[in-house]
Write a structure and sequence with these properties.
The protein has nine helices and nine strands. By secondary structure, it is an alpha/beta fold. This is Glycerophosphoryl diester phosphodiesterase.
Length: 249
């Protein structure tokens, strides 16, 4: 079975990286959710994708220039729809507590430490994941592969996954050099040969971001670990239809 991960929650139907988006993803049958984590001015860990609050809140400026209290005053939902007015930026602990209550739900934590360096973020997220006893349900990913290598040394029991934007030559060799097990490639930058070789070597491949129906149908019938999508409910529905068809129902 190909898993369905909700990219920033059910971000096609709810404001991204909000508790509403995560709840809808779970209600729609998602196997996992993907979130983005970075520091506030007062060194708290919050869940938001961009380095600024401009696009997904009614505020302006860099996330790192806001304290947690100031970020919590921003509206993180009205930009998407008035239905979600007063939605707030969650902390990572709020998300971990949510996941903890959902038996079997997986969590992909992407560290947003490429453009802006967040000193010590690896140690902080590892400690929190361990505090919530979620090491076996969490995947750490990042475009910052130095950060992933650090995590692989600090927490070998937690899977690390390299995110890439371009085509890769023998990605299994590169994963070994980083200390990562998983690979998260952009969907258009992979081919079947690479997928097959990764499968032989037991490296999970989770492809992003799959939003069109034909793409969902193609990748949900492929031999990969998971797809990441803004429309997890739709992807789960398509996966169920594929199962029924294959089962002759």
């Amino acid at each position: 079975m190909v898993y369905v991960f909700a990219h920033r929650g059910s971000s096609g139907t709810c404001p991204e990286n909000t508790l509403s988006a995560y709840k809808e993803a779970v209600e729609g049958g998602s196997d996992g959710i993907e979130i983005d984590v970075q520091y506030t001015k007062d060194n708290e860990l919050v869940v938001i994708h961009d380095n600024t609050v401009n696009r997904t809140t009614n505020g302006k400026g860099l996330v790192k220039d806001y304290t947690l209290k100031e970020l919590k005053m921003l509206d993180a939902g009205c930009w998407f729809s008035e239905q979600f007015a007063l939605e707030r930026i969650p902390t990572i602990e709020e998300v971990l507590a949510f996941v903890k209550e959902k038996e079997g739900l997986l969590l992909n934590i992407e560290l947003k430490n490429v453009v802006i360096h967040h000193e010590g973020i690896e140690e902080r997220v590892i400690k929190l994941v361990r505090d919530y006893s979620l090491s076996n349900r969490v995947i750490f990913s990042s475009f910052n592969h130095i950060s992933l290598h650090r995590i692989s040394k600090l927490a070998p029991e937690i899977e690390c996954a390299v995110i890439t934007l371009d085509k890769q030559f023998k990605p299994w060799d590169y994963l070994a050099s980083v200390g990562a097990a998983g690979w998260h490639p952009q969907w258009s930058k992979i081919d079947q040969h690479i997928i097959n070789e990764m499968k032989k070597r037991n490296h999970p491949v989770r492809v992003y971001t799959i939003n069109k129906v034909d793409q969902m149908e193609a990748f949900l019938t492929n031999d990969i670990e998971a797809i990441m999508t803004d429309y997890p409910g739709k992807a789960v529905q398509i996966r169920n239809e594929i199962r029924r068809t294959r089962g002759g129902e």
